[in-house]
Design brief:
Layout (H helix, E strand, L loop, with lengths): L1 E5 L2 H16 L5 E5 L4 H13 L8 E5 L1 E3 L9 H8 L20 H15 L2 E2 L2 E2 L3 E4 L24 E5 L6 E5 L1 H4 L5 E5 L5 H9 L19 E6 L7
Parallel strand pairs: 1-11, 2-3, 2-7, 7-10, 10-11
Antiparallel strand pairs: 4-9, 5-6, 8-9
């Protein structure tokens, strides 16, 4: 695990964008899974506006870590957020965008998306292997759409599972732990003082860190990086 602390959210956006650009600048096709939430918005804006023209997007395939079961034009859609802040600002072929269909039956979509990953991605020990998975961290320590009350989904034998938000009950389709921990690179993007306690507990293995789904992220790769602003890192 590596921790990279940026002074401000803007600096974090710059640091991650440079990391992202270096990772995808190669002759091979890269497969990247993105997350929704608030933290990535500014980062996606910065990536598109400052490095969008420097990246050969024909060699980048975009997927999602999770998706709320809503229409893709719904304001809660992770796809819509990514489209508005990144995809609409870059020259990426439509066939390189592989969205989770939040409007479809969630169990059928989890199965379809899992099969899509098997088809399009290289495999490591039979598990689809992303070049990069970008994760967020919830106030309750959840990541992807695996929440503290449904941590058993992390160990699912399937590539994707159906989760439910513990408060609203909203259904979501999410990657499972075996896919996340097989990625060649995993990056957490975390901002805000309200995440500081959870960040400390997980990264330092303190307190009740094992109750947080994000503590289960442990890929076998040197490229496991927490990108934090100073507020999120204030208890380290």
């Amino acid at each position: 695990m590596e921790i990279r602390i940026s002074k401000t959210k803007e600096d974090l956006a710059s640091a991650f964008s440079i990391f992202f650009k270096s990772l995808v600048q190669s002759d091979k096709v890269t497969h990247v899974a993105l997350s929704g939430g608030n933290s990535p918005r500014k980062i996606f804006d910065h990536l598109a506006e400052n490095h969008g023209e420097e990246i050969d997007w024909t060699k980048v395939n975009i997927y999602w870590v999770d998706e709320r079961c809503v229409h893709p034009l719904n304001e809660e859609s992770n796809f819509k957020m990514t489209r508005d802040h990144l995809l609409s600002k870059i020259n990426i072929p439509e066939e390189n965008i592989h969205r989770m269909r939040g409007e479809d039956n969630p169990h059928e979509e989890a199965k379809r998306y899992g099969e899509l990953l098997d088809k399009l991605l290289p495999a490591e020990n039979g598990v689809p292997e992303f070049d990069l998975i970008v994760l967020g961290l919830g106030d309750d320590g959840h990541t992807a759409s695996i929440f503290p009350d449904s941590m058993e989904l992390w160990d699912s034998e399937e590539n994707c599972a159906v989760a439910a938000h513990p408060t609203s009950g909203q259904k979501r389709v999410t990657l499972t732990g075996k896919v996340i921990n097989t990625a060649q690179a995993v990056a957490f993007l975390v901002t805000g003082e309200n995440k500081a306690k959870i960040v400390r507990e997980i990264t330092r293995h303190q307190g009740d860190y094992k109750k947080y789904p994000a503590s289960l992220v442990n890929p076998d790769t040197p490229d496991f990086i927490w990108f934090l602003d100073e507020e999120a890192a204030s208890e380290l």
